[in-house]
Amino acid sequence: MIKFSKQQLKTPELMRPVYLVTVGMSPFARAFPETRTEELCVEAFTEAAKFIGMTPAELKKYIHTCYYGHFADHFGDQLLGEAVIHDRLGLDPLGNIGVKTGGATGGSTIWEAVKTVASGYSDCVLAMGWERMDEVPTDEGNHLISCAADKDWETPLGHIYTGYYAVMAQKYWQVFGKQEDSFRRTLAEISVKHHGYARFNPFAQAPMKITVDDVLKSPIVAHPLRVLDCCLMSVGAACAIICDEKTAYELTKNPLLIYCTAGSHSLRPACRRDMDIPLLPNETPEQYKNLDKEFPGGERYPGFTGFLAARMASYYAYNQCGIKDPTEDLDVVELHDAFTISDVQTYEDVGIRPYGYGRAYVESGDCYHTNPKTGKPGKLPSNLSGGLIGCMHAVGATGIMQVAEIGYHLWNRWAEIHGDQKRWDRYGRSKPKDWTDLQVAGARRAMAISHAGVGSHVTATVLMHPDAKLR
Amino acid sequence: MNKYGTIKVIENRYKIDGVHHFMDPNMPIRRADGKLCGVTNPRSMNYIHSYGGEAVFFENLSQGRLFGSKCENPDCEFKGTVYMPFRIHCPDCLGKNTVYDLTETAKKSSKVHTFMITERTGAFNTLKKPIKFINVEFEGVSTILMGYLSVGEPEIGMRVVPIFRKKNPTYTITDLSWVPEGTSDSKLPEGFSF
Q1: If DSSP codes are grouped into helix, strand and coil, which group holds residue A417?
Q2: For the domain bounded by B52-193, which CATH number is listed?
Q3: Which of B51, B61, B114 is best to mutate for the A interface (most A CBs within 10 A)?
Q4: Which of residues 9-68 of A touch B (CB under 8 A)?
Q5: Which among B120, B122, B142 has a CA at the least distance from the CA of B131?
Q6: Distance CA B62, CA B64 (A)
Q7: How confident is residue A48, by pLDDT bands cut at 50, 70 and 90?
Q8: What ipTM score was computed for the predicted complex, to two decimals?
Q9: Quick check: B127 and A158 CB within 8 A?
Q10: pLDDT class for B1, splitting at 50, 70, 90?
Q11: pTM for the structure as a whole
Q12: What would the pLDDT profile of B72-86 be if each residue is shown by its tens digit?
């Protein structure tokens, strides 16, 4: 849809406030050769119950409907895996449904759960996501992922999804990055940051202490993207419990307001007519009038340099929950860093920086927990979990993991969850001697962006303390 | 030699002959100490897929023709929009597009919008590595087509022309490739011609 009608730009409204009550996750890894998917889901659910001082059986009594995010049936060779998990969680005969929107599956699962509570259909909903990406070797996995492109037009071209991002990376690098080495180093810095933050996260799959040069010397996957520019292929589960106000306060003293919106776009970049850039509340039409002169080649929208779906999800979200400027109004974000380049593209789509200037978010130090340039807290820290590059991309769970991670900050319980020595021991992972508490002090509002391949689906989930709501 | 049987369409139904799936015995997966962890499930199967209204595009690649489509619905707000990749229906009015021959347009106006080069592929790749993906823009066409360059090194803005696998076509998108403008016949990959 390229020319919007008034109806299509309606601000999505919730018929009653919706709350996030608790979250839980399994650890994430490239493979769990001795663990069935249901064991990972039970682990995530048990963690969610424990987080609010309940047993799983006690928490289950409140659940009325279940949404299950699981993207790639063909990886696990198990059709209707949702029914298997629902049965093993002992939640039959409650109604449940599977959600499937590529890399945004986790975010879309939250989207459905929020709407179900907002409508009054249910007072308490389970949103559970998982992915099983270890049941085939990596090259077959790459083929299976590439089947998310159009199988007649794009999949046969290499059977490698990274390639479909690399063409975007190349365009962005040449147009907005002006082919500067400094821009390439900025991309690498994102990988260093995310692998580095993953070191303090016991759930994370790829903790690494690396340098920009390590990233730039890592093997090429699809030029200009290298191995360390790319997200992980993961196994794991994550869940969230979403409730109406009355149930939320029965379950916990500290529920968080939750909002979730979604956008979409063709799974072929630039496969629609040109259009004007839909503006966010912190943008003006004038600021993009000379975009093609500032950045020759950057005039096409939607093009290869951004994700229209992310722009639409944030457009709906900001208007729904009253955000005027994400950098001012939010305290912490988790963005969908499928690749270092798509992380930068997303800064622009969600209005953290204007189109063409995404790199400044990294280069200013604003995106860090502690700004390396000033030693003061970063203005809007991003991906303190390690993101998809350092923590995980167990597709159906990813968007829920992101919401869990920003939730821990708003609950001021990040250190309790990530610093617990017993958890590190239980997961068989070594807590680093320089483990650092990444709690964002005083965090009251946060956002998570969940994104599917080349921006076909994107969701924006916003969490707020009830006393910090904006409208 | 294709070990799978044949599929034909007779009176609007598939007529399936021969064997279309194969399997081998499964194997246990064990830990180094011998403990059973799981099993393998080896098998291969054939998929049957209809091109539907796009069949005209894939059929004509082997004839050296590049067919896009165009909305000619007089009631469509965006009448006249031309699409490549081929769209069976106009995404605005959902009327049926007409087939629109873009062969000459492609020969005269195709340019590389963006590109990438990869040595890595997923399983089942049939293209020669490194693969040089190019996204091609055409004059008068509202969308951009993904393809691959068979000769030379890609650059943004570079003029390219289509080549077609006329000999032993696969009837897939890989029958269409691109070369820099001015490339001679002798440099084209086997089976391809202008």
Answers
A1: helix
A2: 2.40.50.140
A3: B114
A4: 33-34
A5: B120
A6: 5
A7: very high
A8: 0.93
A9: yes
A10: low
A11: 0.96
A12: 999 999 999 999 999
